[in-house]
UniProtKB/TrEMBL annotation:
Pfam families: HTH_7, Resolvase. This is Phage DNA invertase. The keyword DNA-binding applies. GO terms for molecular function: DNA binding; DNA strand exchange activity. It comes from Trabulsiella guamensis ATCC 49490. Residues 1-134 form the Resolvase/invertase-type recombinase catalytic domain. Belongs to the site-specific recombinase resolvase family. The active site is at 9 (o-(5'-phospho-dna)-serine intermediate).
């Protein structure tokens, strides 16, 4: 039996391209998952591997669909080999039945880990530069400290939270959190 596995990182992406390629590759069953390639906990992939038997084949559109962490991928491939399951990646020229496929597999997996590590380093460096400039993550606050103080004074003066809410476009529950009723 030939099984296909398609993965995208977010719910905003779709697996249409992967599914089409897997169908063309002759997959009998295709499993789809929405999960980060950096995480090892992928229930759909685990369930798929658990159902596969010796002589079956796992096909992916691209090797990085299995994951970007070399250790996780190697452990998964070891599990496939122990069960007698072949692995094939359509776009990468990887077919673990062949010596060149195994060679390509190791090189591509190392490159995927390198790319993932570089992205992490760039992100951390960018955050450090932003912090050095006094910026922190997240969006800018909707209100300044002065605006919050004005809202507090209005409430303390007896204005209802509902009217302050409408005037400033802030939720009533936010005003209760910021200015509890006993203040």
């Amino acid at each position: 039996m030939i099984y296909g596995y398609a993965r995208v990182s977010t719910n905003h992406q779709d697996t249409e391209l992967q599914r089409s390629a897997l169908e063309s590759a002759g997959c009998d069953h295709i499993y789809e998952e929405h999960a980060s390639g950096r995480k090892s906990n992928r229930p759909v992939l685990k369930r798929l591997i658990a159902t596969m038997q010796a002589g079956d084949e796992l096909v992916v559109w691209k090797l990085d669909r299995i994951g970007r962490n070399v250790l996780h991928a190697l452990l998964m491939f070891q599990q496939l080999q122990e069960k007698g399951i072949n692995f094939r990646s359509i776009t990468d020229g990887v077919d673990l039945k062949t010596a060149s496929g195994r060679y390509n597999f190791r090189n591509i997996l190392s490159a995927a880990q390198y790319e993932s590590d570089l992205n992490s380093e760039r992100t951390l460096a960018g955050l450090a530069v932003a912090r050095a400039k006094g910026r922190i993550g997240g969006r800018r606050p909707k209100f300044t400290a002065e605006q919050w103080e004005k809202m507090r004074k209005m409430i303390m003066a007896g204005e209802t939270r509902q009217s302050v809410s409408k005037g400033y476009g802030v939720g009533i529950s936010t005003l209760y959190k910021k200015f509890p009723a006993n203040h």
